[in-house]
Amino acid sequence: MKIDIIGDIHGCYEEFKELTKKLGYDWTSGLPVNPHGRLLGFVGDLTDRGHHSLQTISMIFNLFEKGCLYYVPGNHCNKLYRYFLGNNVKILHGLETTVAELSAIPRIERDRYRDMFITLYEQSPLYHVLDDGKLIIAHAGIKEELIGKQSNRVKTFVLYGDITGEKNEDGTPVRKDWASDYKGDAWIVYGHTPVKEARIINKTANIDTGAVFGGKLTALRYPEIEVVSVGSSMPFVEEKFREFE
Ligand code: MN
Known about the structure:
Structural class: alpha/beta
Low-confidence stretches: none
Number of helices: 6
Helix content: 25-40%
Bound molecules: manganese (II) ion
Number of strands: 12
Largest sheet: 5 strands, mixed
Order of helices and strands: EHEHEHHHEEHEEEEEEE
Mean pLDDT: 97
Radius of gyration: 17 Å
Strand content: 15-25%
């Protein structure tokens, strides 16, 4: 299987378009199509903070309907899903930009985005196991012993990462560096934690290079394990990027 997996987009639709063009996709049909039949994968976090969350939703939904993408939800997708269900979620941490886009359009349009997103979310797995188990796509990654399992522990891990319940000084949750201990044979491709350069270690690839924080939008080409990025038009926010030793 040949697939190009895209990091956290967070509404950076123009960057996505530019990245897929750089990867050789043709947009003549209005959607990215690879002339060699390569597929697209998404690590989730399609919306929030960027300028074009709704356009990103409809593009992903159209690809989903054509059956030519592998998407897994991120924590922002999970929250937007709960918002669309009418749950009482806090409109914070970037959701406010998506809600503002929704508030600016007529109700009938709003309902259309809601229905698209709910369908996409409910029909997507928490993580994908692809290429006979040799490739896994999970938003925040997955520990080797959790692969193949479905539980609340798995759900928390793939959406939020290896969190302990502890908080950092700035109030953000402590995320452990599970990737540095990974010993599995399957490639795990994930996002969630912005890094300045894609971080490839022990057959894991973090491809969230913080497009929405002024970094880059990154794709990982599989099975080549080649990183392709484009710059972002967003202002650079240094403190959002995590450094690893
Ligand atoms: Mn994210």
